[in-house]
Write a sequence for this structure.
């Protein structure tokens, strides 16, 4: 009897879960195993984000983000429909407050059209008020199909599918290294060393460390940035109908504070973006000495910091002052003046930087023989997760001439 084909996936965030599920669908007779160091799925970036399903407005048309985001939206929507999970196309407006921002908004609109974002259009102030009565601005871009979901529940649904297909999930099992060994790949965990035909590493905030321990280069490296969120008091819960975003300033690497309706009915303000003192500590000072030293010894961070002092000056104001944080959102929704807010759990973003200090914007997926490393999967990583899974599995099938079932219909 021929040997049963085997795959290992490292990480049970939404991308790791999506990859493992895709493997069970494309290789129904194979053994698929997930290794996750935490006790549950979606414990880090997946479970600490705003829940937005991005439509694909911003991304370079030739890049992986643009290619995979639109496909990812369709797959997520289909999964939520099949599994009875909440999916609300509440829409999103990008609001320009001055003439300079209007010019940037035109460029974003051109990209959105090139990326095939459905229904996207420009709004004058009167049209903006029809869609978001409490929002002010000179012009706005409306994306009616931008949606909100619960990514933790989606990840749990993916894990359920993996189990039903015969896959194995090993929680509380940290992977220290993966390596090729002859015609197989070895996974070294806290408890054992196991052999697989192929390994896909989706380690998120730890992706660079695991890659380096596994013999890959250190470029790009992860520098963590935290994002704070505040939840508006119930009286202001319906101040926006959907999502209200600023127009990104290209001199800043991060978007800025915005208002987001959540799938649970709450409305949040945030996030800002500032250097995190840890990769995985979400309360208090959030400090971890090893993570601090890792950032401080990385030359790319200092080059990045030197070029982004204006960003640091802007963001530190919202970090130290709740009033300043709310004031940023109030530029777009003046009626939230005087609103009480409650701090929500922070998120920590795995931001990949190159050694020269450049922010790595697109998805970075490195395939070496029988091992694939997802080195960078920032926003819209969650939105694109199921499409990223297809991309990774398709690449393995092509490179190794594997026999597999066709993927889901385009």
């Amino acid at each position: 009897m021929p040997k049963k084909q085997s795959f290992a996936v490292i990480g049970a965030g939404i991308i790791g879960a999506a990859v493992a599920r895709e493997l069970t669908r494309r290789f129904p007779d194979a053994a698929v195993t997930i290794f996750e160091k935490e006790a549950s799925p979606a414990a880090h970036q997946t479970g600490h984000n705003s829940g937005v399903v991005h439509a694909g407005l911003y991304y370079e048309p030739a890049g992986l983000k643009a290619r995979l985001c639109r496909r990812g939206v369709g797959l997520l929507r289909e999964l939520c429909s099949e599994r009875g999970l909440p999916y609300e196309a509440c829409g999103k407006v990008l609001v320009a407050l001055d003439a300079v921002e209007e010019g940037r908004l035109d460029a974003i609109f051109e990209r959105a059209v090139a990326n095939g974002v459905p229904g996207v259009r420009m709004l004058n102030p009167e049209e903006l008020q029809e869609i978001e009565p409490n929002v002010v601005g000179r012009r706005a871009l409306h994306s009616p199909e931008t949606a909100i979901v619960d990514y933790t529940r989606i990840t749990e649904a993916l894990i359920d599918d993996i189990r039903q297909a015969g896959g194995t999930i090993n929680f509380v099992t940290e992977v220290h290294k993966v390596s090729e060994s002859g015609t197989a790949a070895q996974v070294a965990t806290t408890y054992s060393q196991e052999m697989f035909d192929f390994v896909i590493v989706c380690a998120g905030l730890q992706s660079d460390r695991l890659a380096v321990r596994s013999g890959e280069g250190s470029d790009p490296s992860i520098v963590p940035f935290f994002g704070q969120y505040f939840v508006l008091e119930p009286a202001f819960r319906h101040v926006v109908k959907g999502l209200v975003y600023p127009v990104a300033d290209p001199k800043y690497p991060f978007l800025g504070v915005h208002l987001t309706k959540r799938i649970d009915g709450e409305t949040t303000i945030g996030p800002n973006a500032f250097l995190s003192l840890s990769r995985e500590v979400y309360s208090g000072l959030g400090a971890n000495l090893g993570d601090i030293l890792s950032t401080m010894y990385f030359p790319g961070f200092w080059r990045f910091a030197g070029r982004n002092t204006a960003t640091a000056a802007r963001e530190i104001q919202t970090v130290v002052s709740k009033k300043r944080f709310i004031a940023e959102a109030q530029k777009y929704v003046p009626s939230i003046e005087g609103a009480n807010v409650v701090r929500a759990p922070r998120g920590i973003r795995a931001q990949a930087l190159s050694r020269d200090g450049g922010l790595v914007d697109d998805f970075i997926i490195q395939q070496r023989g029988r091992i694939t490393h997802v080195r960078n999967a920032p926003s819209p990583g969650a939105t694109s997760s199921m499409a990223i899974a297809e991309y990774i599995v398709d690449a393995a099938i092509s490179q190794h001439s594997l026999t597999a079932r066709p993927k889901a219909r385009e």
